[in-house]
From TrEMBL:
Keywords: Ion transport, Transport. One of its GO terms (molecular function) is proton-transporting ATPase activity, rotational mechanism. InterPro entries: ATPase_V1-cplx_f_g_su, ATPase_V1_fsu_sf. It comes from Bittarella massiliensis (ex Durand et al. 2017). The lineage of its organism: Bacteria, Bacillati, Bacillota, Clostridia, Eubacteriales. Belongs to the V-ATPase F subunit family. The keyword Ion transport applies. It comes from the Bacteria. This is ATP synthase subunit F.
C-alpha cells in the first residue's frame, strides 16, 4: 500500500518525495478533481495526502470520498500557507458519520 500526495505547492510536494511518496502538483479545480479521482481509483494507494487549499477547492467531493471509501484514506495536511480548520472538518465528519455532535 502506498501514500500519494496532491499538493498545490512544489515545496510540500518535494518534501513528500524525499520521504518516498509519489504525487502531483496541481493548482486548478479541474486538475485537483482529476488527480483525486485517479488516486482514489488506484487499488495500490491506501492514503491520499492533500493540502488544505486543495481540499477547500473541492470540499464536497473530498467529503463524499471520505464517507464512501472503504480502502483509501484522505488526509488533509497543512502547508506553509495554510490555516488550521481541521477541528471543524473533523467535527463535521464525526457528526455525519455517527450522528454525535462534539
Amino acid at each position: 500500500m502506498k501514500f500519494f500526495v496532491i499538493s498545490d505547492n512544489s515545496d510540500t510536494y518535494m518534501g513528500m518525495r524525499l520521504a518516498g511518496m509519489e504525487g502531483t502538483v496541481v493548482h486548478q479545480y479541474d486538475e485537483t478533481v482529476a488527480a483525486l479521482k485517479t488516486a482514489m481509483e488506484d487499488p495500490d494507494i491506501a492514503v491520499v495526502l492533500m493540502t488544505q487549499k486543495l481540499v477547500s477547492l473541492c470540499q464536497d467531493l473530498v467529503y463524499q470520498y471520505k464517507q464512501q471509501s472503504k480502502t483509501t484514506l484522505i488526509v488533509e495536511i497543512p502547508d506553509r500557507h495554510g490555516s488550521s480548520h481541521l477541528e471543524e472538518n473533523l467535527a463535521r465528519y464525526i457528526k455525519d458519520a455517527i450522528g454525535v455532535k462534539i
